[in-house]
Design a protein that fits this description.
Helix 1 runs antiparallel to helix 2 and helix 1 packs across helix 4. This protein has 148 residues and is of the alpha+beta class. It is 43% helix and 22% strand. The strands form two sheets. A three-stranded antiparallel sheet has the order 1-2-3, with no helix packed on it. The chain has a three-stranded mixed sheet with strand order 5-4-6. Strand 2 and strand 3 form a beta hairpin. The longest helix has 15 residues.
Length: 148
Amino acid sequence: MKCPYCSAPDSKVVNSRPSDDGASIRRRRECLKCARRFTTYERAQLEPLMVVKRHGLREAFNPDKLLRGLMLATEKRPVNAEQLRAFAYGFEDDVQLPEIQSEEIGRRAMTFLRPLDDVAYIRFASVYRDFDSLERFIEEIQGLKDKE
């Protein structure tokens, strides 16, 4: 493993332990040249979850893209960022299918956001469902009130 500090090609493993409930291995390493320590994670490389977009295009699932959308929806809201991260990075493991429709990702994200924060839910829904009028916002908010 190349050292991130001095770019030396060799390092030694000082400590290894399971991480993420056994889904990965955390390795503490020490550079043989500069003696600085750093951490690496090892996890199995599985076939990526493929996302089928609305127009039929397929692309590999990117948890960073999902997390970015969740972070935008919850910006300046009292929502724990760690919960968002866990949902986005655990999404692929939860699906356990070779491919998923992008609409299903949006539905699952809305289901996740709904109990966390109504404002974040509405923000996400407005983009996901492509609200084009004030009436659509009012309908969605009314739907939230009716479910209470």
